[in-house]
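User
Take a look at the entry that follows and flag anything odd:
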Amino acid sequence: MLRIWVRFANWAMPPRGCGLGAGALAAVLALSLPLAVGAQDLRMQELLGKSTTFMAVLIEDVNGDGKPDIIAAQEPRIVWFENPTWEMYTLADNTLGQNYVCMAAHDIDGDGTLDLAVGSQWRPADRKTGGVIQWMRRTEATGRALWETFPIAEEPTTHRMRWIDVTGDGKPELIVAPLHGRALGDNPDDEPLRLLVFTPPAKPESTKWPVDVASNSLHVMHNLAPLMWKGHAATAFASASREGLHLHRRNPDGQWTQDLIGEGNPGEIKFGILGGTRVAATIQPWHGNGVVIYREQTELPWKREVLDEGLQEGHAIAWADLDGDGVDELIAGWRRGNYGVAVYRLQPDNTWKKQLIDQEMAAEDVAVGDLNGDGLPEIVAVGRATGNVRIYWNEAKPKWVAHRVAQGFSNYSVTAADVTGSPTLDVFVSSGGKTFLIPGDGTGRTIPIHEGVDGIFASDVMDVDGDGDLDLVAARYSPGLIFWLERPAKPLEEKWVYHEIDDFAKGGVNGIHGLLVGDVDGDGLPDLIGNSGQPNGDFPDSLAWFRLQRPSGKPSHFSRHIFADRDAPGLSHYFGMADMNGDGKPDIASAGKNAPGGNWFAWWEQPKDATKPWTRHQIAKEQEGATNIIPVDVNGDGKIDFVASRGHGKGVLWFEAPSWKAHEIDTDIEGPHALAVGDLDGDGHADIATCAKDSREAVWYRNDGKGNFQKHVIGTRQASYDVRLVDMDRDGDLDLLVAGQESQNVVWFENRMR
């Protein structure tokens, strides 16, 4: 038996408050047309034909049934369409002549149900009156009756609003942007607008809402969008005005800062992700003809890039990863002339391809969201002159779908486990001196569970204390430090207690690039393997294993044993473990990169006494940038071979036992720093996955069972330092989890091949 350990239509509008009848519903379902969009397929379904002007659209779960619905604001009313029948209901009518222009959804009163902030009495030429800001809550459980309305404030020309947590306390504030400033003097166009920040009080239906002014120096602000700014726990946001794109942040002292991040005269603004980089998309000038993007960069302002100048009154913009490759597509809509909706897709040569998807939609607004739970976003658009509501169903069938776990920080190692009981596995990642737990519940929460240790290059999970749950083990590269965090009973609320395993400052190892969990000594307890890869300290150029001991009545602890004593030079990286010689004891393989004494792959044979030095066996030398090696039977002959990568060089290859003949798999891939092995397509053979930090591609290599491999792309524009194959969504197959060092993200690619 082989023992291997690896890391592994049109109609009249119904009366207010009423749903669509059977005939109308049939008409809804009847108009459904396929639209080809590059590599994706979009099928259009019209929910409502020619009606009055639509101003805004949201995708939200209105009735709490777990399905996202569609909310659309018209000048005379606000309606919503219930998923999956798409029957229409009116939640706000025109009793008070409201003329609705904007809305933002949030549980305002804390009762667990969705509420709605709205802006009404839209009169853009009136700089002195109008601009009613109010909020609404449903009056019965289904949300189908008219909602109850409560006032918040008035601000003339109120035009856009968003819920954004600007203080970082987990409770979002309502940001309201009027289009113009109040007419206080003889030249109203010169009056700056007030960008308002409302804080919901404990009793929002009866108490005045406190208000702050984030900015009073800008003009013609057409929209705003949230983003998390580096180094700030609170969510900052950007505005699009006549003066350009500005970043607004609330400092701890309550004062606001305003920085120009993009020049121009933008109208709409939304943020997306391209290859791990945040990108702002805008329409320029406001109500203009141009689609313009700004890629995030260190220096301000960001560089302006024009994608298109052929729109007529561009008014809608959104980002969505339509094909699941981890790179967002850009959706834009315009409302005059030959109006329509188009998708822009970034090509491999960094040019953009425009695909028109609809010319019967005078797009006023678009929203994106997964309406049918298949993991891919749909597009919803509402029309101004056309007065229609349409869904563009995403019927793409990608074999891999990217899911973003975190964005905006560099990280070197990531691991996943079930510690919260969430539908998807929880993720552990470290950056900036903090270790985070990101629950797999879809909330996007990033919870710090430990602070004070930076430079963590390796992590894994194991049950250290024998209580039946998984704890986190992690290591700082240099100065060397290995520790474990004890999982509490309530992992999202209680403290994770820190325990030291080994410390360079106390005579321990230094240069810990990899950690591997496995039972080294056969006592039934998991042990830990780690490097001492730096050429200094008490254990230079060495490899170690740490024996877990659980003495009765005493705390669990580890004892250090050097098994590769000064014979692993070259800044060793990752590990693989298997019984290479059939003696029933696991042996360990590693790799050394391009440093003095490096560029090798080797394995160490375990002696009778595992605490003594082990015997080194060379697999290959002159392997520039060697980083990773994993034992596995590649060709089905019953012998354990090795798959390997040169992660600080180029190439993925495998070594055939017993002669260690090298077979190159991919000589072009640059920087395949980490590897993972598993059966990805369900054919019983060992496949390989990696994500290259330099050529920035996530790929897998299909093994035909005889050692012949075929390369398949999983995702593009994605860098990585560490990868894991793990069943993230618990559907019985292996997904690819990626620590995106240079991409500054954590992402997992869902395997949909079966």
In short: Confidence is low (pLDDT under 50) at residues 1-34. Helices lie at 22-30.
